[in-house]
Amino acid sequence: MSSIYKVIEIIGGSEKSWEDAAKKAVEIAAKSLKEIRVAEVKELDMRIEEGKVVEYRVKLRVSFKYTP
Length: 68
Prior knowledge:
Layout: E1 5-14, H1 18-29, E2 36-49, E3 52-65
């Protein structure tokens, strides 16, 4: 039997870095998604307040094994 994978997009944020934002997003998603295989960075942005960066945000495309 062959495997089927589903792909979704998730967004993570961190006050430290884009890398930290991506890591946190995958770790949180892994609590409810089984068998995550790949996380691909699609977009990076920052939230700015009063001229200062307050949050790094990353949009990820995540694939995981689909089990109906």
